[in-house]
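## Example record

The block below lists the input lines for one assembly entry, exactly as stored, with component labels intact.
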Amino acid sequence: MTSIIIDDEETARTILGQLCSNINGLDVIDEFSNAMDAIKFLNKNEIDLIFLDIHMPDFTGFDFIQTLKNPPKIILITSDKNFAIEAFEYECIVDYLVKPLSLPRFIKAINKAKSFKIESQETSTTSPNINVSSDRELFVNIDRRLIKIDIPTIKLIEAKGDYILLKTDSQNYTVHSTLKKIVEKLPDSQFLKVHRSYVINTSKIIDIEDNSVLIDRDVIPVSRSNRPELMRRLNLL
Amino acid sequence: MKEKPNLTYINALSGGDIEFEKKLINIIKKEFPIEKEIYFKNLKEKKYQEVAENVHKLKHKIIILGLENSYELAVTYENNLKEGSLDLKEDFQIILKSMTNFLNTL
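Predicted structure tokens for the full assembly:
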């Protein structure tokens, strides 16, 4: 069984690593001090089990689980007993271990994880791969939480000093970032910088006048230098 | 009787693996002063929600060093902080001092 450890505390990762070394057939492939690095890893690798700390600075264990489309089995590790009820609302959570970890309790959790694995292999005909879709989803850091945004719902992005205002079909978000950074994360085919302060989703355009486009109720200026590219992208009759 | 930090948990965890014990103690000695510093900084700046987070993290090291009663005190102190109360601050700082002294002997 392959596994990874996600915990911001090195002491905790070291203790988990030691406990894992007592279990035959359990390999710790990698360990991570933050959830984002783990997500990047899981985009490229399949594993059977995650040891996941609930309480991390920028991203809780539950936030992390919600980013996974097909999560593997997860054993939650925490110093807090209060999350137990919430934990078992997730089908992927095999067990919930409260620090300090002991070997007998740890072995119990691993045995549970092994039986979960057999069930999923018997009932599933598709491979249980983890896929955080970077084509359709974008995570933005707001008030120390990483919020998932469905890229096709983004209408426009406006630069506002050190921040950007990101408008989607349902909500607006103010994010500490730059237009340049966010443009790198968006598909070129769908998004276009039309002005030094605006990037738009071209599929959301309602109409175009000489120097502006209408997106929902927002009139967005189009600079002279960007207008040719905008016109090139339109399916003109 | 006032409890004292000890290596009972670490010894049980290691199963006699001295190298692991050394490694873990070194990591604790490295992380603990940093966590403590952040705790005092946030306390000074009256960022009590952050202080509660810091206590939450420090709790793990308290229990690793066998301080079971102190752990319970830290749990209560963390909850107090979440409600904006500094009750048990002095007691908690005595625990930190005791841990610091103990780690300095290792």
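Residues 8-101 of chain B form one domain. Chain B touches chain A at residues 9, 12-15, 17, 20, 23-24, 27-28, 30-31, 53, 56-57, 59-61, 63-64 (CB under 8 Å).
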